[in-house]
Amino acid sequence: MARNPDNVNIWQDARVWTAPGSAARPTLPTDADTAVLETAWFEFGILDGDAGFGEERSMDETEHFGWGIGLIKIGTKNFALKRTLSALEDNEITRSVLWPGSTASKLVMPKPVSLWLGFDTVSDTGKVERLWTTRPSRLTVPNNNRNESDITKLEITANVFANGLGEVFDRQVSE
Prior knowledge:
mainly beta
């Protein structure tokens, strides 16, 4: 039903789960009310709630015109989906994305990381929505900044890939 205030959500909490992308995707919880298996999925930690989960959708469009008519069709191809998140903790998971392949004493040139992802959000009414990638995502950290007045935010960009059916997420929602 439209114009129903119960359909409006304020997302009060969120978690991002990850698992190595080189193996099969770990088992998902049976539904949105079932706990995530923390021996298979690992949490990024505290996230910047104001930044939320940005989502950028892009595609190439080609406009086709009829002689004397004008625009008659638009062709689309090369669909892409990116999600962004801002992690606030300096922990093993965030360091593995910021400095992949590095050790505690040696940092190597950072390259993209391939990881399974799960986006877990909880609304002000307790509704849970989880989105689990159907393929490993490609994570990069385009920018990183340390300064004297703000906490460090690790801004992560995740390219989300579709499976052979065009599916990008498995979705779980609580009732």
